[in-house]
Design brief:
With 259 residues, this protein is of the alpha/beta class. The chain has a domain of 181 residues: Alpha-Beta Complex (2-enoyl-CoA Hydratase, Chain A, domain 1). It is built from eleven helices and ten strands. The strands form two sheets. The protein has a six-stranded mixed β-sheet, with helices on both faces. A four-stranded mixed β-sheet has the order 4-6-8-9. Strand 1 and strand 2 form a beta hairpin. The protein binds ligand LCV.
């Protein structure tokens, strides 16, 4: 059963997250379908892609599929994790990707939205950074995605509280490009897409890559990187990490003991 829909009108591609039963959780299957669609659009000469959920959803995406998180002894967000592959695919896709947001956006899905080039949201949308709710030690490139889109103080507030922020506040903070009433979401998103599609695709593609390269350019020594990885290993091997996932799966509040 397919978990997404794919459509192309002229040079504008659309990928619709379509697994409402699981609130569009970013399972490896759903992510593989989105990545395949992005590749198909490149091959088909699309000049812009809109990443959306079905009209009227309450949840754009509930984030990483928690059932697919390893219970311990393995980095939950390692290089080959599906979520990591999806964020890289969005960044490396030569044409702009517009996140058309309706409903709430959680955790890894919030990073996916921030990795998109433009974010258009409706007024009732919310955005939440949730690792602290699960005990997950988010990874460096994932936090960098957030830092590139969100002021550091706001990233810290969102990451440490794990509380959603409203679309209007996200717009005031520059996290979201446009916030519109739900009935204007399609017109605004596809209006931007049409403006992009009529411009020079080679120029846009190279500027997208230049901007991403500049945004992701950071000095981090191998020694520092290895120290961070060691610290993260302690976290994903902790009892709290296991408790966070178990509590989610058992639909109860977690009790974190700091060990
Ligand atoms: C698997 C799910 C999920 C889900 N995975 O509907 O950023 S990190 O580090 O945290 C990263 C690891 C990450 O992204 O973790 C996931 C973070 N996501 C969240 O914390 C949101 C978790 N989901 C929710 O809080 C609720 O599902 C929301 C508020 C999104 C929607 O609530 P609603 O009452 O509408 P349900 O909770 O009943 O969910 C419907 C079905 O989808 C499953 C959930 O287990 C349920 O399955 P069953 O019908 O089998 O009970 N589901 C929801 N989110 N992330 N499965």
């Amino acid at each position: 059963m397919s978990l997404t829909l794919k459509d192309q009108r002229d040079t504008i591609g659309t990928i619709t997250l379509n697994h409402q039963e699981k609130r569009n959780a970013l399972s490896s299957q759903l992510i593989d379908e989105v990545m395949a669609a992005l590749k198909d659009f490149v091959d088909a000469g699309a000049r812009v892609v809109v990443l959306r959920a079905a009209p009227g959803v309450k949840v754009w995406s509930a984030g990483h599929d928690v059932e697919e998180l390893p219970l311990s002894n393995r980095d939950p967000l390692g290089w080959d994790d599906p979520l990591r592959r999806l964020v890289r695919a969005i960044e490396e896709t030569p044409m702009p990707v517009i996140a058309m947001i309706e409903g709430s956006v959680w955790g890894g899905a919030c990073e996916v939205a921030m990795a998109c080039d433009i974010v258009v949201a409706c007024e009732a949308s919310t955005f939440a950074i949730t690792p602290a709710k699960l005990g997950v030690p988010y990874n460096l490139t994932g936090l960098m995605t957030f830092m590139n889109a969100v002021h550091l103080h706001i990233v810290k507030e969102m990451a440490f509280t794990a509380q959603p922020i409203a679309a209007r506040r996200a717009e005031q903070l520059g996290i979201v490009n446009r916030v519109v009433p739900a009935e204007e979401l399609e017109a605004t998103s596809y209006g931007l897409a049409a403006q992009i599609a009529q411009n020079a695709p080679l120029s846009i593609a190279v500027m997208k890559e230049e901007l991403n390269l500049l945004a992701n350019a950071r000095d981090l020594s191998p020694q520092t990187f290895e120290r961070i990885q060691a610290l993260r290993r302690v976290v994903y091997n902790s009892a709290d990490y296991r408790e966070g996932i178990q509590a989610f799966l058992e639909k109860r509040r977690p009790l974190f003991r700091g060990e």
